[in-house]
Amino acid sequence: MTQASTNPGSDGFTASQAKASWSFLRGHLREYGILFALIAIMVFFQIATDGILLKPINLTNLVLQNSYIVIMAIGMLLVIVSGHIDLSVGSVLGFVGALAAVMIVQWDLPYLLAAVLCLAAGALIGMAQGFWVAYFRIPSFIVTLAGMLVFKGLTLWLLAGQSVGPFPAQFQLIASGFIPDIFGAEGLNLFSLVIGLVVATAILAFAIRTRMSQAKTGAPTEPFAFFAAKHGLIFVALVYMSWLMAGFRGLPNVFIVMALLIAIYSFVTSRTTIGRRIYAIGGNEKAATLSGINSQRLVFLTFANMGMLAALAGLVFAARLNTATPKAGVSFELDVIAAVFIGGASMAGGVGTVVGAVIGAFIMGVMNNGMSILGIGIDWQQCIKGLVLLAAVIFDVMNKKKG
Amino acid sequence: MPTILEMRGITKEFPGVKALNNVSLSVEEGEIHALVGENGAGKSTLMKVLSGVYPHGSYSGDIVFDGEVRAYRGIRDSEADGIIIIHQELALIPLLSIAENIFLGNERARGGIIDWRRTEARAAELLEQVGLRESPKTLVDDLGLGKQQLVEIAKALSKDVRLMILDEPTSSLNETDSRKLLDLLLEFKAKGMTSILISHKLNEISRVADTITVIRDGAAVSRLDCAEGISEGRIIRDMVGRSLDNRFPERVAHAREETALEVRNWTVRHPIHSERRVVDDVSFHVKRGEVLGIAGLMGAGRTELAMSLFGRSWGAGIEGEAWIGGARADLSTVRRAIDAGLAYVTEDRKTYGLVLDDTIRRNVPLAKLEAVADGLVVNRNREAEVAERYRKRLNIKSSSIEQEAVNLSGGNQQKVVLSKWLFADPDILILDEPTRGIDVGAKFEIYTVIRDLAASGKAIIVISSEMPELLGVTDRLYVMNEGRFVAEMATEEASQERIMTAIIKSGEEAA
Ligand SMILES: Nc1ncnc2c1ncn2[C@@H]1O[C@H](COP(=O)(O)OP(=O)(O)OP(=O)(O)O)[C@@H](O)[C@H]1O
Ligand SMILES: [Mg+2]
């Protein structure tokens, strides 16, 4: 570890910091284990693919390929934390893509209007399902299983079994566009790099501020060396990634959307009253209700939100393929749910983080990508992904028992 | 008498707490050995060590049972030796029958196929032994808590028990049921069975125990022989480390003229059997600054009354009016009830009170999260301050406010629930069995909190099955029986006999 250089001081101090960091890490293995797993997997594939994995073009691709899974994983995290599940997201994604194609390609609606209508449709679909789950206590597994079939069917009907496309160029930009380079430097999207730097610095500043205010009230904090190492690593990783991507065509538009969603939802889940209440509902719904929390409405909203994010993912996916096909979204729900569980959420509800779910999604994504580069067939890919999911959850459970 | 069990130098640590520190316990064959101590002293932990819930290797020290050192790796091992534990929280499966529950994991079967005739015949025998007149086919869900406790004991008896451990078996029973259960223990003792009894009810301990071991802060501080006539005061002194002169704070009347809450003709029907009126045309009031008690037997409808008032959280077809501060109050949802100034502290902390996997810090402000938030954003510093304040005020024994509720001792969990509602700062506070599982010292502290709240003008309603508690802390009492209020009295003029008479008389009138 590199903490020695960040803390000039006596050797005793360094040693005690290292020890404190190490024991802190052991105590919080559940939270950080998944991050290490992602790093390990990336290192593995980076070596195994002779450095192809982190080539700018591949990295960009990886982000694009995974964007819709990440977007839906964020919504799914909330659903799972509240103690439910949504099996319909893959079908909803396909349906919304089809809807967009019909509106834009066949009806010639302006694509912005169509996009807004599609998001609204997604939210409505979420509400329709959430209504039964929240207010009539129909198990979400069943309601959304029904939804999965229904929307798969409606997609087929809407497209009449055909693929519909292509989309206008501007619509495609949602998924395949890159942020413009306002500086216009040669061979490097400087603006992207600057954004990366600014975001990384902002995260660092935010972390330092939080730590200082915690220290003021004497709340427990991570050992300093651990804190420094962690945020140093995050900072370097972010800047490095944006530098890599800046070297290709810059940051993809979707990347910005994803980053915003991650930031917003992380904040909502960990810092706001609404987030707190959703966790309480997942942890013990009866106790939460008796504490004056309107659990029905919150569950309803969680599903509405999920529907909207699935619709957003549907737009991104359709724009990326540049066509809507009846096959779009098939079995995506499995990847999304797997990502959330790999990221440490609990089946019983009340546990899980947005960042964990996103990391989970990237673990799946990196494996997909890496294994494809290595030419491993889809058959083995499935097996390996299944085993990784199982291993992650077993690790989680064992860790909890030990604690 | 020979020594059947010796635990020597037991030390058990959890991350951040030493729950047991070099504790020794020795139990003689055929005695009833009581284990007492404050909340969080380590009683349950010691018994979990003994029964293998915490396996050999996760603690240090020796367990000697029947003259041999034992290393139990799980409950199965200790059960094989005849050590059976009945946990503080009952572990029956509600939708299985009595017989199925008794033989769960220990089925009467041949080649994997259950022999129902033998199961039911044996279950009937066991029920007979514990004096429970119910069909073995009855679902556990349909039994009251007292009867469920007897089923637990029948289950223990089905396993060739040599040493029975009962962790607070009477904490949720009323006096009649408690008495029955203790008589049963005495009966078993006469037949030569050994038992270890954990309880916070010292009168019970004095009645049945032969020997008492007092645990304080994870260490055994004394071993008292009851043959020498031990006073409750002596036990308390060893438990708390000082003597406690009064069990109740002094009662100063604070009742004011204004009525805080008035309920008129309140009727609540059973959610499934809608012809059953669980609360039947009840009218009552409570004044500001007054502590009102509701006495009654288990199943009288007191909890149902309270929960139906609190945002219709129980029951169906609710009729009646509630008036707060002279205006008709809308109590139709929990949120509205809270906004109208009401709070309800549940009797069932695990199901209705706590988010068990969350920390103290996150549980305490839950009912009034807005108060620790700036707009929509929770202010974690303020949240921590609040949790810390209540941890100190109610003396919640924990490593820090970051300890998860599930890892707290039973009594300390109760204090967390109480903190949550004290922080919500209601005008009318309904406390349902507020001191269940709470030690004597802490009880006094809670009574003091109740009296202080009354002094500051709040109205308090206490539902309790412990009559001394009602007589000690309230100003006025209602007696409830079978869904109706059958008597009202000033506490000064009340007595246990008067309350019981009211209950019995109303029962006769109804018949
Ligand atoms: N799994 C655990 N993790 C951390 N601390 C624990 C755990 N279990 C118990 N403790 C701590 O050990 C101490 C002893 O708890 P224990 O349950 O034995 O108390 P008790 O004497 O049974 O109290 P009560 O009368 O309230 O039931 C408490 O301070 C409790 O917080
Ligand atoms: Mg206990």
TrEMBL record, chain A:
How is this protein positioned relative to the membrane? Multi-pass membrane protein
Q: Which stretches are transmembrane?
A: 32-53, 59-80, 87-105, 111-134, 141-160, 190-212, 224-244, 250-268, 298-317, 337-363
Keyword set includes Lipid metabolism: no
| Cellular component aspect of the GO annotation | plasma membrane
Q: Does the keyword Transmembrane apply?
A: yes
Location in the cell reads: Cell membrane
UniProt keyword list? Cell inner membrane, Cell membrane, Membrane, Sugar transport, Transmembrane, Transmembrane helix, Transport
Assign the protein's first listed, main location to one coarse class.
Answer: membrane
Q: Which Pfam families match?
A: BPD_transp_2 (PF02653)
Sample GO molecular function, one term: transmembrane transporter activity
Q: What does this protein do?
A: Part of the binding-protein-dependent transport system for D-xylose. Probably responsible for the translocation of the substrate across the membrane.
What is this protein's name?
A: Xylose transport system permease protein XylH
Lineage of origin: Bacteria, Pseudomonadati, Pseudomonadota, Alphaproteobacteria, Rhodobacterales
Automatic annotation (TrEMBL), chain B:
Q: Which Pfam families match?
A: ABC_tran
Quick check: keyword Transport in the entry?
yes
As for subcellular location, the record says: Cell membrane
State one molecular function term (GO).
Answer: ATP binding
Q: Which UniProt keywords apply?
A: ATP-binding, Cell membrane, Membrane, Nucleotide-binding, Repeat, Sugar transport, Translocase, Transport
Record-level GO cellular component terms: plasma membrane
The UniProt entry lists membrane topology as: Peripheral membrane protein
Entry superkingdom: Bacteria
Gene3D superfamilies, A to Z: P-loop containing nucleotide triphosphate hydrolases
Q: Which SUPFAM superfamilies match?
A: P-loop containing nucleoside triphosphate hydrolases
Ranges for the ABC transporter domain? 5-242, 261-507
Task: Kindly give the PANTHER family that the UniProt entry links to this protein.
Answer: CARBOHYDRATE TRANSPORT ATP-BINDING PROTEIN MG119-RELATED, XYLOSE IMPORT ATP-BINDING PROTEIN XYLG
Identification of the protein by name: Putative multiple sugar transport system ATP-binding protein
Write down the species.
Palleronia aestuarii
